[in-house]
């Protein structure tokens, strides 16, 4: 399935970073976006990640954790 994500300030919609990707299902997509590497944002900031379906509709929002060490 085709997905995209946007990293935004908590509670906001101003996109700081984002991209599209393929994942087999919603759970795999959620896991991917929580820990995706985005060099333009700080994982220490209060950020959310918005998961969007193929039509651009938000299907999930959660805390952006940042990449695992």
Any overview of this molecule?
With 69 residues, the chain is mainly β. The protein has one domain. 13% of the residues lie in helices and 38% in strands. The chain has 1 helix and 4 strands. The chain has one helix spanning 26-34; strands at residues 2-9, 17-22, 47-52, 58-63. Strands 2-1-3-4 form a 4-stranded antiparallel beta sheet, covered by helices on one side. A hairpin with a 7-residue loop joins β1 and β2. It is globular. The N and C termini lie far apart (27 Å). The model has no long low-confidence stretch (mean pLDDT 92).
- Helicity, in percent? 10-25%
What is the number of independent domains? Answer: 1
Average residue pLDDT:
92
The rounded distance between the terminal residues' Cα atoms is 27 Å
Which spans have pLDDT < 50 for at least 5 consecutive residues? none
Number of helices: 1
Structural class: mainly beta
Provide the succession of SSEs: EEHEE
β content, as a range? 35-45%
Q: C-alpha Rg, in Å?
A: 11 Å
Topology diagram in text:
Blueprint: E1 2-9, E2 17-22, H1 26-34, E3 47-52, E4 58-63
Antiparallel strand pairs: 1-2, 1-3, 3-4
Write a short abstract of this structure:
By secondary structure, the protein is mostly beta strands. Helix content is 13%, strand content 38%.
